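Why does residue order matter? Because the sequence determines the fold. Keep that principle in mind as you read this record.
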Amino acid sequence: QLQLVESGGGLVQAGGSLRLSCETSGNLFLVYDMGWHRQAPGKERELVAGMDHHGSPYYDDSVKGRFTVSRDTAKNTLYLQMTSLKPEDTAMYYCAARTAGESGLIWGSWGQGTQVTVSS
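Structure:
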């Protein structure tokens, strides 16, 4: 089992920055990669950034150049540095871990989420 706990969300003005953290614990050897997803009201949850098991980051085009994923392996913590925030970045942000399931890799472990609100 994996436990993920996000923190760092809040209210920020457009153009501002926030850093989200995701502390992980449990059977970390099961993790293939980790990602940051977000869900805005009335919209589907979307993957915006992540880091694979080699430590290589990947990003959705909507956040590329503005968001940066990093990790501190000693602290088992994944970060999402968000800069140049826009009102459309407003959403609940979730940290998730992808592990191998019977039908392949699945986003099977999720945190409780942290709210990010960007005012115009």
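The first strand starts at residue 2 and ends at 7.
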